[in-house]
Design a protein that fits this description.
Elements lengths: L4 H13 L2 H8 L3 H15 L4 E4 L2 E4 L1 H28 L4 E7 L6 H12 L3 E7 L2 H10 L4 E5 L7 E15 L7 H11 L2 E4 L5 H13 L7 E3 L2 H9 L4 E5 L3 H4 L3 E5 L6 E8 L6 H12 L1
Parallel strand pairs: 3-4, 3-5, 7-8, 7-9
Antiparallel strand pairs: 1-2, 5-11, 6-9, 6-10, 6-11
Helix pairs in contact: 1-2, 1-3, 1-4, 2-3
């Protein structure tokens, strides 16, 4: 049996009003049309739902048993319709957003901003390197990414900020000033770095920077940025980091800017332009509007 919500709405309204005249007025239809809808429903069910008498209409025992479920069905249909309209307008749904080391502050700030004005949207942040974000944007697993400029020409991307390399040194033993002191620290102290698979874009950036200066590569690796900073603070070596991680460094670590080629890059917002998703475009437009 095909569910016709208009028929069930007719039944519920007559049951609530107690007569066809008031129910037809509420539903903005004629009494004959209303009677036909209910008769069709009763014929399909093979049972009588309403008892018609001189004093109006009231549910039969079968109709009384179905009335509560019919009301629930109509309420669910109304809720679904509202949800569908909100999704179509980009006001509800789920948004998967990627972000990386250079957007540790940027991405959560925009997510919080969007959540404040779109309470029906479920926002999910995923910490991923730019290369993984690019692959998942292309496959549809992500809708938005805060990332380096993608290699794929299929993705749209707009820059939001520029990041740069800095040398993290232990505050307690740092005595130098200026570029000469930084160059000396690069050559003399052990160099620490995040494991390459955790942030391949940053690892490649550091490798290009070191290679251009014919400097020795990484001596020791750490699994996460917090461990890396703790090792620096403890005096076990220096680390090359993005300047945007300053909020993680703490007072035990000094960040010294590095100069020259291969020290700067852009971070932006990326998305698939062919994805017909109003929610994605609403989020991107809000970010780009600043």
């Amino acid at each position: 049996m095909r569910v016709d919500l208009r028929q069930w709405q007719a039944f519920v309204t007559v049951a609530e009003c107690g007569n066809y005249r008031e129910a037809s007025s509420r539903l903005h239809c004629t009494q004959p049309a209303l009677s036909k809808q209910i008769q069709t429903l009763e014929s399909q069910l093979g049972t009588s739902l309403l008892h018609r008498g001189r004093h109006g209409a009231e549910p039969t025992p079968q109709g009384q048993r179905l009335l509560r479920q019919a009301k629930a069905l109509l309420a669910h249909a109304s809720s679904f319709e509202q949800e569908a309209r909100a999704v179509a307008a980009g006001l509800a749904g789920r948004l998967n957003i990627g972000f990386g080391l250079s957007s540790f502050e940027l991405a959560p700030a925009w997510v919080a901003d969007f959540a404040a004005t779109h309470p029906e949207v479920r926002l999910h942040l995923q910490d991923q390197p730019s290369a993984m974000q690019e692959a998942q944007l292309l496959s549809g697993q992500l809708q938005v990414g805060f990332m380096r400029r993608p290699e794929s020409g299929a993705l749209a991307w707009q820059p939001l900020l520029s990041d740069r390399l800095v040398l993290a040194v232990p505050e307690k033993s740092w005595q130098g000033e200026g570029s000469d002191a930084v160059a000396q620290a690069l050559c003399q102290a052990p160099l620490l770095q995040m494991v390459g698979r955790r942030c391949p874009g940053l690892s490649s950036q550091i490798a290009r920077f070191l290679g251009a200066r014919q400097l020795v590569g990484v001596i020791q690796e750490a699994e996460d940025i917090q461990t890396l900073v703790a090792l620096v603070a403890a005096g076990l070596g220096n680390a090359i980091l993005p300047a945007s991680t300053a909020f993680i460094a703490g007072r035990g670590v000094r960040l010294c800017p590095l100069e020259g080629e291969h020290t700067q890059w852009e971070i932006g917002i990326g998305w698939h332009p062919d994805l017909e998703d109003p929610l994605t475009h609403r989020f991107v437009d809000r970010v780009l509007a600043g």
